[in-house]
Amino acid sequence: MLVVNGRLTADLGAVLLQAIEVLRRSGAAANNADALVVMAETVLAHGPHARRGNERHQVVIHVDGDLLADDDRSGRCEVDDGPAIPPETARRLACDASIVWMLDDDTGRPVNVSSRSPSIPPALRRAVHARDRGCDFPGCGERRFTDVHHLRHRAHGGRNELGNLAELCWFHHRLVHEGGWGLLRDDSGGLVAVDPNGETLRVPAGQEGDAEMLARGNGDRGITVTSSTVVSQWAGDPLHVNDVIAALWSVERRRN
Predict the structure, then answer these.
(1) Do 229 and 126 belong to one domain?
(2) Within a domain: residue 247?
(3) Which domain does 40 fall in, by range?
(4) Is residue 85 within 8 Å of residue 10, measured between CB atoms?
(5) pLDDT digit string (tens) for 143-186?
(6) What residue ranges in the chain does DSSP mark as E strands?
(7) What is the pLDDT of residue 237?
């Protein structure tokens, strides 16, 4: 038997559970294990494919407006019928999702609700994709699994304007929000990444944003192709001490 254990963030877990539920309701899977195999068979048959913007699946997040704008505020921030999530995760999801605003009374009961509206109008989304042609994080270029990111989030006063938007792959979108990285545009309009220590990564102007160009453009910082690749692949996930201890114990056991 193959035993599978895993840990997912709340938003990714909601996507997985939704996919399993769809397969079980359709009759394509009798149980969760069958559903995972059906998903694997589908990918192997048709290849990985991501739907963009409003075409994507719906995961409902409840977050208070004050908390979305300021981490120091208290309030609700959670997956619908699921666990709580950090405000920064809610901001990432709100970058490229349809939004419904609800007004609650003092008891928390909704008294007014808006119609659903896309975070980014379709025409503006097409313009961002035509300009960036994939993930614009320095050294990346992934074209399939991408979101549109607000450099200055709408909760902080950012607008749906071409100069305030960038196409990012799912990994780098998470890295920017939950991983503590920042993005800004330089005088030439190129995107510059700023790590949590304030150091910058950039690709030389007019050159492709692959790992080799990234390394050559940042040689004074000791960036190599190997280190650039590590930066590109890390999703900004937090350290799980139990997993580290288990891994070290496994290594020690193999040595003995």
Answers:
(1) yes
(2) no
(3) 10-49
(4) yes
(5) 888 999 999 988 888 888 999 999 999 889 988 998 889 998 88
(6) 61-63, 77-79, 102-104, 110-113, 146-150, 165-169, 182-185, 191-194, 200-201
(7) 56
